[in-house]
Amino acid sequence: MSFSATNFAQPRPVPVGIRSNEKSLSSDPFRFRFRGSPSFLGSPHSLRFNPTPPLKLAIPHCRRSTAAAVTDVKSSANMLITKEEGLELYEDMILGRFFEDMCAQMYYRGKMFGFVHLYNGQEAVSTGFIKLLKKEDTVVSTYRDHVHALSKGVPARAVMSELFGKATGCCRGQGGSMHMFSKEHNLIGGFAFIGEGIPVATGAAFSSKYRREVLKEASADHVTLAFFGDGTCNNGQFYECLNMAALWKLPIIFVVENNLWAIGMSHLRATSDPEIWKKGPAFGMAGVHVDGMDVLKVREVAKEAIERARRGDGPTLVECETYRFRGHSLADPDELRDPAEKARYAARDPISALKKYMIENKLANEQELKSIEKKIDEVLDDAVEFSDESPLPPRSQLLENVFADSKGFGIGPDGKYRCEDPKFTQGTAHV
Amino acid sequence: MLRAIRHKSICPAFGAFRAFASAAKEMTVREALNSALDEEMSADPKVFLMGEEVGEYQGAYKISKGLLDKYGPERVLDTPITEAGFAGIGVGAAYYGLRPVVEFMTFNFSMQAIDHIINSAAKSNYMSAGQISVPIVFRGPNGAAAGVGAQHSQCYAAWYASCPGLKVLAPYSSEDARGLLKAAIRDPDPVVFLENELLYGESFPVSAEVLDSSFCLPIGKAKIEREGKDVTITAYSKMVGYALKAAEILAKEGVSAEVINLRSIRPLDRTTINASVRKTNRLVTVEEGFPQHGVGAEICTSVVEESFGYLDAPVERIAGADVPMPYAANLERMAVPQVEDIVRAAKRACHRSVPLAATA
């Protein structure tokens, strides 16, 4: 399957039956407007963008990847989601939002420390993608990884304890906010260096393909999602991996969470061509742009990308236009972003949008949604209490897990391996 | 006269010399590495090789000759010129239990991938509290070659050996190359395997035991290449050969030098080094890399910490010159330790009056 650059680079009229990825970027009026007025992005002093009225949520006539025009359909037969799915999505986004808010509270109370990067506003991307995955599929993230961990199934207690630096955290307090790992849930990081997770994710996808083709494990059809931001898309490793993923047709989806800002550097000021989705076809893979504030749209695009990867047809680059409501980290005063821009995106809060959709389409009522919020409040209170009461890591943990094979600490004065001394981890030791 | 040599010590200048009558075969380091890779790939289908020119070109230095034909392109991968990318891909694959061998054409190019070697390979087992181990090997030629200039000649042993979570190995002979590479591939932790381009073509005798496919050397144990009683000389990689030659010259002058082949830079075999210094009371460290914060500095500190009372003379440190590697042949010779430098340093340690500065 090869793509020429022209398939996606220019918008063109969309006939019925075209694939939904092509449709979403060429018929999306929001994108057209973007193309016309560069003042929409970035520069805080010259934002004169008038938003279109909130887009109707796209509902295809059928659930397959071929989709037609965007229409508003009220009958339940054509709903994008069932009630159960809707409640699941809602709960996941509420968990993400409330968790991050609780993190901010705990940080200012001194329970959490160091670098903490919160995900408020971007929940639609995490929920939209990760809720479609199997447990064996892999997620790789950056330092803004709390919500990816939660969506992938790591318990809130484990994530909160990790943030408090307690021994009951998912990494026993050794990783911290930026290094969430859970082998059980196939969340393999948590990387502080932007761009670092992309090759690792590509390697995880490589291992899935290797297992299927070389080791002949027929059930190895796992896909990998790599989440990263707009700033990362200027980094060399990103391009190296787009090339190799397309070259070797790896089952990976590169998910760009374009929130327009890399700390205080606006995407427009940093990037020669800010349309990131275009970089996919340049390497021979599908490139898609989607409204990342709308969980249902993200989910539709994600479905297609994941199916493509699972059947062995290679990678996809998905650019999600989203926004972080808080600063880059809790230490960021966030002075460079225009309050009007923030207000505009706050009006497109993905949680409110889903709530509105569910209520208008009679998938749930106010009461049910409120009860989900209450449930999550309780989950979080329990998580904080659990973390508070958990012990700090013991001193012996300092030297543990440096190596899988602790003989790496070498041979001690008595000629035996240091790790064989039962008292090895008790002092700071002569390592 | 040559002193009696106990172990299967190797003197490349005397290629045919053997300690045991049964050590019949000779093998170049290149063949040793190739056979080790071949055997490990054949024993475990999860082992695969990845790097620039490792496949169709048969390896930039022909180390992976024949492997593409034998194992196919899925297990011997020619990569694009993307060190950061493919080192990271190797790490990601290792997270999931595959056992990649990532070849850098030289370790100078590893600087483009050093983020992955340190941050996503070395530190991951710790950051994930033991959930994710990284059984990866990064290998390639390290240190100076001949006339390749400043950007192709740096020795990275000190840089990698300072990082917790990594194991750093530096083979010298064919036996070292085979045993340590096999150990590295079987090891569940990230291993940086520093070869030397100028040693690839050198031949060493190997015993039947070395040729066995289950032969493995322990990581973290140095080898005493030559026993002595007057001064200890530590070295790794190519410098072991120079140290052995120096030991020959010193022997003629009545100084009995003990030569230690470190084999493993991290973990450093401090026990063997200290035991030797306690015996000889004098130490000369030899390395090809830059002097400041180098391997010799660490060895000196270890000896001062553990065996200070045994030292009869200050530790002599021989290292490469503190300059980027020049190109001109005579300057390059001055920038890398030579046998005469080692002899001079050993004599200084033994209180023979010899001037400090090198002569051109």
TrEMBL record, chain A:
The keyword Plastid does not apply. One of its GO terms (molecular function) is pyruvate dehydrogenase (acetyl-transferring) activity. Keywords: Coiled coil, Oxidoreductase, Pyruvate, Thiamine pyrophosphate. InterPro entries: DH_E1, PDH_E1_Alpha_Subunit, Pyrv_DH_E1_asu_subgrp-y, THDP-binding. Its EC number is 1.2.4.1. Its cofactor is thiamine diphosphate. It holds the Pfam family E1_dh. Residues 362-389 form a coiled coil. Residues 93-393 form the Dehydrogenase E1 component domain. It comes from the Eukaryota. It catalyses: N(6)-[(R)-lipoyl]-L-lysyl-[protein] + pyruvate + H(+) = N(6)-[(R)-S(8)-acetyldihydrolipoyl]-L-lysyl-[protein] + CO2. One of its GO terms (biological process) is pyruvate decarboxylation to acetyl-CoA. Tetramer of 2 alpha and 2 beta subunits. The pyruvate dehydrogenase complex catalyzes the overall conversion of pyruvate to acetyl-CoA and CO(2). It contains multiple copies of three enzymatic components: pyruvate dehydrogenase (E1), dihydrolipoamide acetyltransferase (E2) and lipoamide dehydrogenase (E3). NCBIfam families: PDH_E1_alph_y (TIGR03182). This is Pyruvate dehydrogenase E1 component subunit alpha. The lineage of its organism: Eukaryota, Viridiplantae, Streptophyta, Embryophyta, Tracheophyta.
Automatic annotation (TrEMBL), chain B:
One of its GO terms (cellular component) is mitochondrial matrix. The keyword Aminoacyl-tRNA synthetase does not apply. Residues 27-202 form the Transketolase-like pyrimidine-binding domain. SMART domains: Transket_pyr. One of its GO terms (biological process) is pyruvate decarboxylation to acetyl-CoA. Its main location: mitochondrion. Pfam families: Transket_pyr, Transketolase_C. This is Pyruvate dehydrogenase E1 component subunit beta. It comes from the Eukaryota. It is an enzyme of class 1 (oxidoreductase). NCBIfam families: PRK09212.1 (NF006667), PRK11892.1 (NF008854). It catalyses: N(6)-[(R)-lipoyl]-L-lysyl-[protein] + pyruvate + H(+) = N(6)-[(R)-S(8)-acetyldihydrolipoyl]-L-lysyl-[protein] + CO2. Its EC number is 1.2.4.1. Gene3D superfamilies: 3.40.50.920, 3.40.50.970. It comes from Arachis hypogaea. Keywords: Metal-binding, Mitochondrion, Oxidoreductase, Potassium, Pyruvate, Thiamine pyrophosphate, Transit peptide. Transmembrane segments: none annotated. Its cofactor is thiamine diphosphate. The pyruvate dehydrogenase complex catalyzes the overall conversion of pyruvate to acetyl-CoA and CO2. CDD domains: TPP_PYR_E1-PDHc-beta_like. It is found in: Mitochondrion matrix. GO terms for molecular function: metal ion binding; pyruvate dehydrogenase (acetyl-transferring) activity. Tetramer of 2 alpha and 2 beta subunits.
